[in-house]
Write a structure and sequence with these properties.
Blueprint (H helix, E strand, L loop, with lengths): L1 E10 L2 E11 L2 E6 L1 H7 L4 E4 L3 E5 L1 E6 L15 H13 L4 H17 L2 E8 L7 H13 L2 E8 L13 H14 L6 E7 L7 H14 L3 E5 L3 H11 L3 H7 L7 E5 L5 H10 L2 E4 L1 H6 L7 H6 L4 E3 L12 H16 L7 H7 L2 H7 L10 E2 L2 E5 L11 H7 L6 E6 L2 E5 L2 E2 L4 H11 L8
């Protein structure tokens, strides 16, 4: 066991100066002042990390790793144009090696930006789990903690390689889950794609799997205006209420996006105890709108942050999305006080762990030793007296001195410790050779 002291520590969901924590292997055992911990653990090793700020690794609660390969090809298109002219046709060109390359690119960028846990909502299955295993392989190679949100997709308007029957999807998920039941780095969770891409039977199958296996399940909900309008027209109720009518709005439900939700929807989400992943950067990038993040917080809905796919945001940084989340709400409400830096920081750390059902996102007892170490001498964290605010509003990537996952250093001074970045670049170039933006 090691007692670690830092000049500034985000412990137990608050910033504390000259504080410490006890780390044993992959876990945090306790936090307190250096003197308190020395008294409690007199025989432990002690390390003074000096003039650094230490905070929990950020949690990216929604991403699509393979889409990192598509970055730039669909920029500045409408949602429908991006999907039909880029996402679908380019996805058809990705073999297993390209899928692994996309995951390596995506996860490497995340780690360097301080993301230590990611939920990858993955749906290029080809009827098996082989492509899913390529994503898992990439996560292991880099050392990132992975929730493999295995998509359940049966809409025939999408590429056939996305599609499975509810029965086949269930069978494949159970196989994947069984293979990783005791894994502490990889956590499969079911993910009916959305109310337009998953049939009612598929949505209910995903909810049933979550109940059976005691895990959360993920689903895109109310992402763009047309989706809400179509469901209201066809079902006579909002997407959130329709999901509830299927028996699939519960405390296990992770609702991704929720841009086009009203007060009644939010009240129902809160009543059911469901969870939300807010994707402010991606929602803005695709022109989908601004989700009511402040109202989610007011109703005490567990709300985390996600970057979404690399081609629907272009930056795989939760620190970036913290800033975006706060600034958009300030602008929408014409009130700079509606979302504080601390609110955004907790959404990107502790709430991420709560939403995904994992002991991550906190420097607290019985949580994973997933850490981001910041250099307090970095220009973007000056003046040091207000570094707590700079972390969300001003910090640049060069302030990240070290990233730790499960007690192991995976990034040191901006460089990956487990994988050659030049190799990733070569793999990405090979996977995207000959591609061009749609005219």
């Amino acid at each position: 066991m090691t007692i670690v002291r830092a000049a500034l520590l985000f412990a137990d969901d608050r910033w504390i100066r000259d504080h410490a924590f006890v780390m044993q292997g992959a876990a945090v055992l306790a936090t307190g002042t250096p003197s308190q911990l020395a008294e409690r653990f007199p025989d432990d090793e002690r390390e003074d990390w000096g003039d650094v700020a230490v905070l929990p690794g950020t949690v990216n609660a929604h991403a699509h790793s393979f889409q990192a390969l598509l970055r730039g090809f669909g920029d500045d298109l409408t949602f429908a144009g991006w999907r039909d002219r880029v996402l679908y046709p380019f996805s058809e060109q990705l073999d297993r090696q390209a899928i692994r390359a996309g995951a390596l690119l995506d996860f490497a960028e995340m780690l360097k930006a301080g993301v230590t846990t990611v939920a990858d909502f993955f749906y290029i299955h080809d009827g098996t789990n082989e492509n899913d295993l390529a994503v898992i392989e990439a996560a292991r190679e880099l050392g990132i903690r992975l929730v493999l949100a295995r998509a359940m997709y049966d809409w025939t308007g999408a590429p056939k390689r996305f599609q499975e029957s509810p029965a086949r999807s269930r069978e494949n998920f159970l196989e994947l889950h069984a293979a990783h039941r005791t894994d502490r780095l990889v956590f499969p969770q079911p993910a009916p794609h959305s109310l337009h891409a998953a049939s009612p039977e598929m949505v209910q199958a995903g909810a049933a799997l979550a109940e059976e296996l005691d895990v959360p399940f993920h689903i895109h909900v109310a992402e763009y205006r047309q989706e809400r309008e179509q469901i209201v027209e066809n079902r006579g109720m909002s997407p959130v209420r329709y999901l509830d009518s299927l028996g699939a709005l519960t405390e296990r439900t992770i609702l991704v996006h929720c841009v086009w939700t009203d007060e009644d929807d939010l009240a129902l989400i809160a009543e059911r105890g469901a969870r939300i992943v807010h994707n402010p950067g991606a929602n803005a990038f695709l022109g989908d709108g601004v989700a009511p993040f402040r109202k989610m917080l007011e109703r005490n809905i567990r709300t985390s942050l996600g970057t979404d796919g690399g081609c629907t945001n272009s930056r795989q940084s939760i620190f970036d999305d913290m800033r975006t989340a706060a600034l958009l709400q300030k602008a929408v409400h014409a009130d700079a006080s509606v979302v504080r830096a601390e609110d955004a920081l907790i959404a990107g750390t502790a709430r991420g762990g709560e939403v995904l059902g994992l002991p991550v996102g906190r420097i607290a007892a019985d949580h994973a030793a997933d850490l981001v170490v910041l250099d307090l001498d970095a220009l973007s964290l000056q003046p040091r007296a207000t570094a707590e605010k700079q972390v969300v509003y001003a910090m640049q990537p060069d302030a990240i001195a070290r990233v730790v996952v499960g007690g192991d250093t995976v990034v040191e001074r901006g460089r990956l410790t487990r994988f050659d970045e030049a190799e990733i670049i070569a793999m990405v170039q090979a996977a995207t050779s000959g591609w061009s933006r749609p005219s």
